[in-house]
Design brief:
Layout (H helix, E strand, L loop, with lengths): L5 E5 L2 E7 L4 E6 L4 E5 L3 H9 L3 H8 L6 E3 L2
Antiparallel strand pairs: 1-2, 2-3, 3-4, 4-5
């Protein structure tokens, strides 16, 4: 699955993207690790992508709330 990610470059997150049809949020971290979270609602993804502190939002609202799999 190729999700187009946009550059974020802050808070330890390099880029992220959301597939609305599949409800998958893909996040690339500064170290090169990429994870996909499944069943993520559009509003959660939108708030994460727009957040001024994306790592805090990720830890508080996504990391332990949605299933994840490592892509890289």
């Amino acid at each position: 699955m190729g999700i187009e990610r946009k550059s974020i470059q802050r808070g330890g997150i390099k880029s992220a993207g959301y597939d609305r049809a599949q409800r998958v949020l893909e996040i690339e971290f500064d170290g090169g690790r990429i994870v996909q979270h499944t069943s993520v609602g559009e509003e959660i993804a939108r708030r994460f992508l727009a957040s001024g502190s994306p790592m805090s939002y990720y830890r508080d609202n996504i990391e332990d709330e949605f299933s994840q799999r490592a892509v890289r």
